[in-house]
Amino acid sequence: MLSRRDDNLERAAATLKKFQLEGEALAALDHPNIVGLLDVGTANDTPFLVMEYVAGGLTLKRLIEQHQADQKTVQPALCWHRVRQILSALGDAHAPPRQLVHRDIKPENIMLQAKDGDPAHVKVLDFGLAKFVQDGTETTQAMGTPAYMAPEQLWKQRLGPWTDL
Asked: Which structural domains are found in the chain, ordered by start?
């Protein structure tokens, strides 16, 4: 939720559009490896999203940092288990009728939790930069985290499921 009101009307409108897009994107998804949307709206002209709480969650970025600090290796089977869940979530988002491209897949947007006997259950987060491909494969802005962006995002053209992969 935004902590202050933005008096720049153009920026405020862009922020509201971003929240509405994320709400629309999340509302279109229902997958066990994608964080669930509970509510979307505005309160006192401030947009908000209420998403599923990921109890005991740890971002993949934080897990990688812990492994590096402890000089631990990751078991290949556990790594593949996580990758399969991420690909399953993205496959669901990419599939018709949604055809939604996340555009910001990175370790900070992957959360892990122990759930239903699975110590490495994955949740994909943050669909704030998502794009519905049926609206076109071109984009006017290069959006995402530069270190994780696909070349077509930088070139602002031909976005599709491959962009997330």
From this structure: 9-164 (1.10.510.10)
